[in-house]
Structure formats: structure tokens, C-alpha cells
Amino acid sequence: MSAEIVPLPAATVTLVRDSARGLEVLMMQRNLKSGFVPGAHIFPGGALDAEDEAPELQALCTGISDEIASRALGVERGGLAYWVAAIRESFEEAGVLVAYDGNQSVIALDRPAQADRFRGHRHVLNAGERGFIDIMREEGLTLAADQLVYFSHWITPVSAPRRYDTRFFIAAAPAAQEPLHDNQETISHLWVRPADALDRHRDNQFSMRLPTIRTLEEFAAFDRVESLIQAMRNTRDIDANLPRITRGGKYLVPGDAGYEETAKAEQQGQWKI
Fold it and tell me: Which of these, 63, 55, 99, 106, lies nearest to 81 by C-alpha position?
């Protein structure tokens, strides 16, 4: 029996907006050569970086402390790093920065010169040439952590070759910012109604993993951002979802027939995905 792969802590943010067609969510398509779910349509997110835990960066978070964040996640300490990571990943992957300017307004990037400057910030951040905190300090910004609502927790199946322990957040997309994929980790993006994204998945147009599907199914019941975020804010007792995968490739969640038997087979290393 091979050793179980320890999942890396990660954060994902679902950016939503109101449109003439109803509520829409931002989805990105992963690079087809990616080592993790290549070509899949996802929400911006990724593993926590060491900088996400830096006290200097967490001190720039508005509206939530590490104590409150950790209590919400059910961990002893370090919870605020997930909020930081979600905001950083949104900027790195989608070019959307959930941050406050000096007037405590969500930053607008609708002026060409400003948009160009932040594209430059994003480029050097993705290249590893500057830290996220350096950009925040230079621009006089704080992280709008209070704009993010934690609502779900998913852990990659035990049999997967790469695993993440991911906290899911939701936030209203800043009105004066335009998302753009990075052409590295992601190769395209679109705004789409949750129900339409699910239809495309059923028609084999979108490749999506179970956490994404379940999130979209939940979101599809709402037609306005305000009501959706309020519902997610009222979520209590968020349990970790650990799917199991049958030998035939079917995903099971707790309560599904065969879940416990599949869990035992996975733990005994009878197969890998």
C-alpha cells in the first residue's frame, strides 16, 4: 500500500456579477498542458504561498482578523492566509484585484494608464520578480478580505496523484475591472450563467470537476448576486467534502451508495486515478 499524498492547502474564489441575462460567474479554462486537470473550466484559485502567511501582508487585510478567519475555517491559526491566497490568485490568474484604495472603495482599473500599470504588476508577480505585498504597498492598497465569503470546503480524492485541501470563497466582481486570462495557467475565460455552464458540461463542451459542478448547481438557484452572497454568508457548519472515485471513474460523496467501500479500496491503494 503506497503512502497517502498529503493535500496542499489551497483557496478558490468564485467571482460573480449581475447581468441582463441574470447572475453570471467567471470561469477560466486551464492550460491543456497543465499537470492538474488540464483543459478544465475552473474558478480562479491555487495553493497557498509562504507570503500569504506573512504578518506584514495579513496586516493589510480589511475587515477580518486571523482569529475570526481561523474560527470560520475550523483551524487553530493561520486561517487568514486563505483569504489572502484567494485574492492573490484572483489577480494572478484572472487579473481581478479585490482590494480597497485609499478611500476604502474597491479599486477601479478602468482608466487605460492605470490598467496598463496593473497589468505590469501582474506580469512581474506571475514571473516571481516581485511579491504581492510590494505591489500593495506601492499602490497604497489594502486587501478587501471582508468582500470574500467562505462557503465550501473540498479535498481532492485520496487516489489522485496531486491533491489539494481547498477552501471556496465567493465575492462580487469589482464593477470597474475586466478579467483577462494569463495565457499561462489559464488560456481562456468567460462570464456564464451557472445553468448554462452546467448545460455545456452535459454537452461535453466544458470539462469540469465535481467541486465546480456542485458549486454551479448551488448557484443556479439564484438570479441576483446580493441574494446569492447573503445565502452563502448564512451558511453554517461547513463540512469537508472528500469525494471517492470508483474503479470505473465515478465520483461519490458521503451518503452515496458505495462510498464507504470505495473509500476502503482507495486507502488500501487498490487503484489510482
Answer: 55
> Which residue do the cell numbers 478544465 mark?
40
- CATH, domain range 8-238: 3.90.79.10
- Walking along the chain (273 residues) 10 residues at a time, the average pLDDT comes out as 81 97 96 82 95 95 96 96 98 96 93 94 95 96 98 90 94 95 89 97 93 96 97 90 83 80 70 52
Question: 13 near 229, Cβ under 8 Å?
Answer: no
Distances 213 to 37, 63, 124, 199 between C-alpha atoms, Å: 14, 30, 33, 11
Q: Where are the domains of the chain?
A: 8-238, 243-273
pLDDT attached to residue 2: 58
Indicate the pairing of strand 251-252 with strand 142-143. unpaired
Query: What is the C-alpha separation between 29 and 52, in angstroms, rounded?
Result: 24
